[in-house]
Amino acid sequence: MLMLVAYNMSGGGTAPAMKMSDVFILVSISIIVGAFIMHSWVEPITLSNNNSHAINTSLSEGDKVDMQFSASNATTVTISLDGEVIDEIVLAEGEKGKYTFAVEDSGDHSFLISVSGADDSATTTATISIDRQMMLDKLVYPVGILLLMFGLYKRKEEMEMEHSEDDKIVDAEIES
Predict the structure, then answer these.
(1) Rounded distance, CA 176 to CA 174, Å?
(2) Is residue 105 packed enough to be buried (19+ CB in 10 Å), middle (13-18) or exposed (0-12)?
(3) In the prediction, which pLDDT does 152 show?
(4) Which strand ranges, in their side-by-side order, compose the sheet holding 124-131?
(5) Could you report the per-residue pLDDT of 75-128, keeping only the tens digit for each?
(6) Tens of pLDDT along 120-159?
(7) Residues facing residue 102 across a β-bridge
(8) Strand 107-116 relative to strand 75-81: parallel, antiparallel, unpaired?
(9) For the purposes of burial, counting CB atoms within 10 Å of the CB of 82, is it exposed (0-12), middle (13-18) or buried (19 or more)?
(10) Are strands 84-91 and 53-59 parallel, antiparallel or unpaired?
(11) Is 153 left (phi over 0), alpha (psi -120 to 50) or beta?
């Protein structure tokens, strides 16, 4: 059965055409802001006696995993890598500790962070960040900046075309 589809906006209005330079500027700024948020947003993890935290990540040789801990009460933080305990950090009340793991073998790694303390209400806050040696995840910054520069160049070119008297741009709609 043949269906007829309306070719207008459902909201009851129409939108003007967007210039190509505005599209490039909007997309590039979105890429740059998204990359900045992705790289700078590190959310702390709260751990307790009954609550451990597992991290499964793909790491390359030379990457570093930085872990920072702060304890509310006396706590022992146990860090395991691929099922093998690699470090135990004993923290006194209000003390902060740090552990840095340098990756020697590329591949998938599984970290397990658990805490044990005498007090069940004790909590430990962990902040984990990964410093990658290969800059592939930072490649989006130059791409975003190049798109922004191209969009600004196109906008300047469009402005010059609008203000020149020789070449007037004519906006036209073709109706059928």
Answers:
(1) 7
(2) exposed
(3) 94
(4) 45-47, 124-131, 64-71, 96-102
(5) 888 889 888 888 888 888 888 989 999 988 888 989 998 888 777 777 888 888
(6) 777 888 888 888 887 777 888 999 999 999 999 999 988 8
(7) 64
(8) antiparallel
(9) exposed
(10) unpaired
(11) alpha
Task: Quote the CA–CA distance of 99 and 90 in Å, as a whole number.
Answer: 12
Averaged pLDDT score across all residues of the chain: 83
What residues have CB less than 8 Å from 3, skipping those under 6 apart?
none
Report the residue count for the chain: 176
DSSP state of 110: E
* Paired strand residues for 131: 64
Domain extents for the chain?
21-38+138-160, 42-134
Put simply, whether the predicted model's pTM sits higher than 0.70 gets the answer no
State residue 155 phi and psi, 5-degree precision.
-65, -45
User: Does the domain made of 42-134 have the CATH classification 2.60.120.680?
Assistant: yes
**Where does residue 68 rank: exposed (0-12), middle (13-18), buried (19+ CB within 10 A)?**
middle
